[in-house]
Amino acid sequence: MKRTLLRFENVQQVVGDDGLAVILLTDESRQRAISVVCDEPMTRQLLMRVQSPERCKNLLPEALVSLLPSSYEMMIYGVHDGQYQVVLADTNFERSTRLRISDAVLLNIVAGYPLYIEEELMKHQCIPFNENARGVAIPINTMDVHRLHLALEKAISEENYELASQLRDELNRRKK
Least enclosed by CB within 10 Å: which of 38, 90, 104, 146? Predict the structure, then answer.
């Protein structure tokens, strides 16, 4: 299985939506990126570590990670019901557990555990990375149902029927 190592680029709050942010992850060459939506509590956790890493060294995640061996890695292997599917495993795959993508990003920052994505999934989900971009695209297959409905209403009101059709199709896929 081919896989791509991801690196954390940044986290930015979504304009006009209190509580949501987008995490941007890139490949090592910074040519391709994937975006991940995260909630407000996780946004705070990530921003604390980006802005003031020294203030975080005695927090619970850092303390727990200091007790674990460094032989863990994480893999994004799919998307289901609008969520990236991630597994945390020791390098021998003797022990593993699933976790949220935002928690995997936090572990990557706190512990340095590598975060990979299956190459075919990366090809399907990625966008070209532009360091100076003013906005970030979020794949519709990673949006929650509520946001899909809001986006559908907006697409219809703006008469963007191609996007509305794609959003409707995604909602129908989720109902099955």
Answer: 146
Angle at 45 between CA 51 and CA 12, to 5 degrees: 65
For the sheet with 3-13, list strands across it.
Answer: 96-99, 83-90, 72-80, 115-118, 3-13, 21-27, 32-38, 127-128
Q: What total number of domains does the chain contain?
A: 2
pLDDT of residue 59: 94
pLDDT tens across 14-30, in order?
A: 766 666 789 999 999 99
Confidence at residue 175, expressed as pLDDT on a 0 to 100 scale: 83
Please state which of the ranges 75-84, 97-106, 164-173 shows the lowest mean pLDDT.
Answer: 164-173
User: Tell me, what's the pLDDT at 56?
Assistant: 94
Tell me the H-state helices in the chain.
Answer: 40-51, 60-67, 101-111, 119-125, 145-157, 161-175
**pTM for the structure as a whole:** 0.84
Domain that holds residue 129: 3-135
Residues 161 and 97 in one domain: no
Q: Which long-range contacts (CB under 8 A, 24 or more apart) does 127-133 make?
A: 127/32, 127/33, 127/34, 127/35, 128/31, 128/32, 128/33, 129/9, 129/24, 129/26, 129/27, 129/30, 129/31, 129/32, 129/33, 131/30
